[in-house]
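hey team, just a heads up i'm posting the complex here instead of the shared drive bc the drive is being weird again. everything in one block, sequence lines first with there labels, then the predicted structure for the whole assembly after. its two chains so it's a bit long, scroll down
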Amino acid sequence: MTTDTRWKGLARAKQQAILDAIPAKWRIQEPIPPAADLRDCTGTYIQQFLTPREIEMTESDAVSITQHTTVGLWSAVDVTEAFCHRAAIAHQLVNCLHEIFFDEAIAAAGVLDQYFAQHKKPVGPLHGLPVSLKDQFHVRGVETTMGYVGWIDTFEGVKGDARARTFESELVKELRNLGAVLFCKTSVPTTLMAGETANNIIGYTWNPKNRHLSSGGSSGGEGALIALRGSPAGFGTDIGGSIRVPAAFNGIFGLRPSSGRLPYEGVANSMDGQNIILSVVGPMATSARSLKLLTKAVLTQSPWKYDPLVHELPWRSSAERTVQELIDGDPCALTFGVMHHDDIVLPQPPVRRAMHLIERVLRRRGHQIVNWRPPPHDICLAIARQTFQSDGGEDVQAHLDLSGEPPLPQCLISKSDSLNARQIAALNVRKRQCQKSHLDYWNSTSKLTSSGRPVDAIICPTAPHAAVVPGQFRYIGYTSFVNTLDLTSVVIPATYASKLLDRPEPRDPASFMSHEDMEIHSDYDPLIYDGAPVGVQLIGRRLEEEKILCLAEYIQAFCVEPFMSAEKTQVWGC
Amino acid sequence: MTTDTRWKGLARAKQQAILDAIPAKWRIQEPIPPAADLRDCTGTYIQQFLTPREIEMTESDAVSITQHTTVGLWSAVDVTEAFCHRAAIAHQLVNCLHEIFFDEAIAAAGVLDQYFAQHKKPVGPLHGLPVSLKDQFHVRGVETTMGYVGWIDTFEGVKGDARARTFESELVKELRNLGAVLFCKTSVPTTLMAGETANNIIGYTWNPKNRHLSSGGSSGGEGALIALRGSPAGFGTDIGGSIRVPAAFNGIFGLRPSSGRLPYEGVANSMDGQNIILSVVGPMATSARSLKLLTKAVLTQSPWKYDPLVHELPWRSSAERTVQELIDGDPCALTFGVMHHDDIVLPQPPVRRAMHLIERVLRRRGHQIVNWRPPPHDICLAIARQTFQSDGGEDVQAHLDLSGEPPLPQCLISKSDSLNARQIAALNVRKRQCQKSHLDYWNSTSKLTSSGRPVDAIICPTAPHAAVVPGQFRYIGYTSFVNTLDLTSVVIPATYASKLLDRPEPRDPASFMSHEDMEIHSDYDPLIYDGAPVGVQLIGRRLEEEKILCLAEYIQAFCVEPFMSAEKTQVWGC
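-- predicted structure starts here --
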């Protein structure tokens, strides 16, 4: 058997095992229409496979679900079964799962129901809430492949390691303590270093709102699953945009906290130990308040006692109150820095429209808008790229070599020279200087605001395009600067690409700011993008998770949702 | 002119310039007795050069000084002049200063006095408090050599850099905002990577309590100056023990906070950008409460707004209250983990006695003592050593090469192979796993305590010996594990080596735990060590500065001071 045959056989068997884990009763019998006939498989399309009760439960957000499950209105088993069913359908539609453990989930939910029946109180704030996990988290009973064929039947690539199928990541333990029900793990691109989700095991994870397009990456399986309401909330990871890109592409919410806020302990990773820019764990969900629920809940577990890299920062209600007072102030005195583009790549028309819409809505509510003109972003981008390439691609190659599988074309990592200690130190210094210059700029905006405070948050694109056409994810600069600077960022769904509203606009070739700018400009096709979600980032300072989550909730409730409803009736013009 | 002649000329000129900055009226006229005739130059010896008023001021701790200066009882100018005078004497006795700027200090103090006269209130909580700084901090008007001859007349080795003599480190700006008066910068060993303080510019910094011995390193100038009361408080840095070793050797207090607590922004460093183990900034002073004053004061400046690596952690009074409640509880319910040795090197008799004394005193006050048996310390030590050698010594060599000066024999860095990116990542993973195993061990001690809480703090040696005989600083394991684990540690003076009490104890050669253990055992000489300070560490979890400073204050007041007085009359036996 050749290497090629061997890894393909392993991959196919694993792919089949995932499908086989779906109970027969939940398999879609009729053929699924091709994307050309069924662009959007959310909403009514997926609802046809579900009972009204299942639809009610699965279309509730995490906050609403826990409002029912923690007081005994909904049983954990009923909710879990509804999400298992919907997740099973979701996987068949867009290919978003890596591990399925519905039986264990329903059994765990049963234990929660017994607990509630006996004690008349929930196990914790997430009692009975199904939570999905990107396939980097270790959960007992199932494996973690992270998309690598060579990781099948191993622990992070090591055969015979006793931790396989037994070890649990710190966050997983905490979620169990909180009463959450774990039921599936979601797809990732091999190596995690890609803006689309595809691997040699399950293939490509498609965008549920527009099946011609990508679900984004690297937490693309989470993004697609949650958009299909196959999960109310889940956890991804983000080192260059891997939570935010799929959140934006799938029309959901995602938080990239600063490093050291949520526990990464015991989570599989690419280039583990690279600590120039740390990958972070963060929640993804269908509402901003759900992100807050999950973040707050995890922090009640004092993760700093179990993860040496988490700072002792419990949820700070005082920060929450401060923001609420600003919101409730009359006149509401918030100031937003708006960055329509980063001087490197001009976003495509749907993203430009989304940015203008958000700006207009915020202005209408009386908020001050400041034109955000930070220090050059090309430095942030160069630092991120050099970081991702710092080991010359050796780590990802070693994991690919375990099976002999080829890399994916979407992978952002290529072979290069590895940096040595002095070069890494120099990169760390450049990164710190870059962070310092942005910090100083942020402080300096107090001169521009009527409040006298520096800007409260920045609003900017998540990517230069809506959910991307496969193969056209070319530019990570809109998300990776947040990682370089270690800021807090929440993605908020803003609109959908529209072939009617988002006409291509010719540009003078002399106006292109970069090669990527030119490429991304010419990539734009209003027909294929039609219906693709667009999400924008709301960015706070480092470790300002409380503030930025509260602002996200406010913007969702008072700015985006009324507008999104209006949009549907197309009364708002442009 | 040969290279050798050139650097020696530059070094001598700089050495002379430092001496020349001492006003003629403060020069010691008569010859200073050799160490054989004058072992201890603190106390009455140095007092002979000062007025009673100067003695009163300079022998007050930072808290007492600010209690006078912030209400107008003492003028900033008077206090500053007293400390300038005493620092000038101190330098002549033990060679502890790199930069002297008394005129600027007295002028700045004058401005503070004017402010107070005009506004009837202090500029800030450190109004009129002289604060010394290790010669890594940039202060306008003077240079920073960090002991490198090649840095003379440059900015961090770069000739013609406009920041020379103008740029100020973030902490320096914050100290000015708080009302502190900066007046001198203190000596360091070239490269900073040494447990003794010596360089080719000023020579050797001697221990004021025993002039045969070292002042420790790398913040040895701070340690010696503060021990001589030439400064009430100062700031050092610590990557392997550089605050704690000189604090212990000089009989003063020193805080090594966790990384990200106090601002390092804009401070010169060795191997800048090495971020496997981060060097940290911390205060050194003559009392635990002074460390608290300085830490708390700096945190009022919101350093996280100006230093991208500082976490948003203001001083947490709630943590302070929690500890105070434990202390005030009846019975007082604190539990200390005591580690008499680390299974690698058995401390010499004075340190063993100090540890037993502290343990006994704590037991007598009703505290529970748990035998601290953590995961192996040799792993922590290996991680620290590999970190310090990670660039193969290239950075320090490059700075030595600027002038052609030779390295010092005390330097812990040697030439080796530089690590590459994957090796550094692997080292970071080992470090994280090491931190995790210690965290789990710490949590597990809840099973050993009557309180049901994990151990409140650890007590262990700072070094295997009292202030060391020059050339015999062989082992950093007692301090560097704190850096590897990123814990919080305060050094508390415990006792003095005594030729009468600390007799050498023969050991079976089979009992030696390591080569260093054997060497350090045979190094011990009761005659030369007689009078050398011994300090122990009080260690808290990561970022528990509030807790550990409060405990240090408690231990100083109720455990150590009564005992230290008793010791003087030798009534306590052993």
